Known about the structure:
The structure is a single chain. By secondary structure, the chain is of the alpha+beta class. The chain has one helix at 35-47, and strands at residues 3-9, 14-20, 23-26, 29-31, 51-54.
Amino acid sequence: MEQKTYYLDTGNDRVYFNVIGCETVCRDTTSRVSEDKLITFLQTAKELGLKAGSL
């Protein structure tokens, strides 16, 4: 199964999101957030001045 990793840099911390299939894992918590919704969230964060992207 393909795994993709995204990050969000808040200035004080860097948060990593691992997308595995249809699940998103962040700090040992799994959610059913789709990759499309995660990307929309990261794009919004970038518009607000935070650093975000994929590895």
